C-alpha cells in the first residue's frame, strides 16, 4: 500500500502529464465538457498500473516530486477552461514566474558551491527564512498578487506537515522543472520587450 507521500507524488506527475495534453493542437477548440472528459481520462490513465507500476511512477523516477508552486500552476492551467483568467491574473502569473526565476538563480548556484554561503541550508527550519516568506505572502495578498501568496502559503503548510519526504522548504517552493520553465519564460519575455523597444526607437 503506497503511503501518502507516494500518492501525492504520483498525483503531481499525473497532473503534469494531464496539463501537457492542453498543449496538443486542437485541444483548445474542444467544448469544455469534452476537454474535461479527456483530461480526466488522461489523469486516470496515468495512475493505472502497467506492469508493476503506473505510468506516473515511471515518470516520477525521472522528474522526482514536483514542488507546490508547480502543482498550483498545473492546476491553474487545468482549471483555466472553466474559469476566466483576466489580465490581472496573467500579470500575477508573470510576477510569480519572475520570483521563481530569481529564487532559482539564488538557490541553485549557491547550493552547487558558487559561494561560501549555501542558501539550501536555510530550508532546514531557518525561522528567519520562514518569517520572510510569510511576510512576502502577506504583502503579495495585500497587493492582490493572490497566486504568489497561495503558492508560498501552501508550500509552507505542506512543509510544516511533512507532506514530502524532503524536510527542506526549498523543495516545496521550487523544483528544477519550474525553475527552467520560469527562466525560459522570463528570457523570452525580456527578448520580446527588447525587440519592441528597439523597433519603437527605430521608427522615431
Task: Summarize the helices and strands and which ones pair or pack.
Layout: H1 4-21, H2 32-47, E1 49-50, E2 53-54, H3 55-63, H4 68-79, H5 87-111, H6 127-142, H7 146-160, H8 170-173, H9 176-202
Antiparallel strand pairs: 1-2
Overview of the molecule:
The protein is mainly α and 204 residues long. The chain has helices spanning 4-21, 32-47, 55-63, 68-79, 87-111, 127-142, 146-160, 170-173, 176-202, and strands at 49-50, 53-54. 26% of the residues are buried. It has 2 domains: 1-65, no CATH class; 82-204, no CATH class. The longest helix is centred in the C-terminal third of the chain and has 27 residues, at 176-202. The chain is 70% helix and 2% strand.
Short description:
This protein is mostly helical and 204 residues long. The chain is 70% helix and 2% strand. It has a two-stranded antiparallel ribbon.
Look at the helices and sheets and give the structural class.
mainly alpha
Q: Please mark out the parts with pLDDT under 50 across 5 or more consecutive residues, or reply none.
A: none
Q: Tell me the domain tally.
A: 2
Biggest beta-sheet profile: 2 strands, antiparallel
Helix content: 55-70%
Strand content: under 5%
Alpha-carbon distance between the termini? 68 Å
Mean pLDDT: 85
Rg computed from alpha carbons, rounded to a whole number of angstroms: 19 Å
Task: Provide a count of the helices.
Answer: 9
Strands ordered across the widest β-sheet: 1-2
Judging from the principal axes of the Cα atoms, what is the shape?
A: globular
SSE order, one letter for each helix or strand: HHEEHHHHHHH
Tell how many strands the DSSP assignment holds. Answer: 2
